[in-house]
Structure formats: C-alpha cells, structure tokens
Specification:
Blueprint (H helix, E strand, L loop, with lengths): L5 E5 L3 H13 L3 E5 L2 H10 L4 E5 L7 H9 L4 H4 L3 E5 L7 H7 L3 E4 L4 H12 L1
Parallel strand pairs: 1-2, 1-3, 3-4, 4-5
Helix pairs in contact: 2-3
C-alpha cells in the first residue's frame, strides 16, 4: 500500500487553488495550501511535502524568490522538493530563469488540468 503523496499549493488565487485542489484530490493526493511565498516557506520548513506547486506572482514573496530560498535550505530533503511554477506571465521568464531559481517544471495559466496531473504524477513517482 503506497502512502498518499502530499502536495503544497502556493497560490494567491482562491479559484486556482480550489480547482487544483479538487483535481488533485480526485487523483488521491493530499492537498495543502498557502497564499504567499512566506507561508510556503514556513510550511515547507515545518512539514514534508512530495511536490510544490508555486505561483510566480504572489504577494509578500514571489515564487521565484521562494524557490531560491527553498533550494538554499540546510535540510536537503526539503531543499530538493520538486517545484512546479504556475505562471500567467511565462513570456517574462526564460526556461533558464526557472532552472536558475531551482524550478523543475512550469505550467501556464489558464491551467491545463491534464498537464497538471501528468507533471505532478511524474515528479512524485
């Protein structure tokens, strides 16, 4: 029996958070959420997650800075969590920008939920 995988969604849009939650719960993931990068960082340091979905444009701390801070954590298990960026502004970033911040993959808004499930499944297996 495999244990349920835990997904942390860092997203300030309640609509995207709720839709993503419902889609991934249907795939048997346990979902947690945060509204900004600081909350994400607080949750990551106190709890284990299997993958992080991270909005790039969040208040308090944006997704790029949050990813960089996660990658610099002393705990290597936490520092190496797979991170998927979610962005409506992909044209503002290159793949190199995402890679430099430590982001493993990215999804564009509006979210393609089939792609979301595919990416999360790939990064958690």
């Amino acid at each position: 029996m495999s244990k349920t995988k835990k997904v942390l969604i860092g997203e300030d849009s309640s609509v995207i958070q709720n839709l993503t939650r419902k889609i991934l719960q249907f795939q048997n993931y346990e979902i947690f959420s945060a509204k900004n990068g600081k909350q994400v960082l607080d949750k990551i340091t106190s709890e284990h997650y299997d993958v992080l979905l991270l909005d790039i444009n969040m208040p308090i701390m944006d997704g790029m800075e949050c990813a960089r801070q996660i990658r610099s954590l002393d705990d290597q298990n936490k520092a190496n969590i797979p991170i998927v960026a979610i962005t409506g502004n992909a044209r503002n970033y290159t793949e190199e920008d995402f890679t430099a911040a430590g982001i493993n993959d990215y999804l564009l808004k509006p979210l393609d939920f089939d792609k979301l499930v595919e990416v999360v499944n790939r990064l958690t297996n």
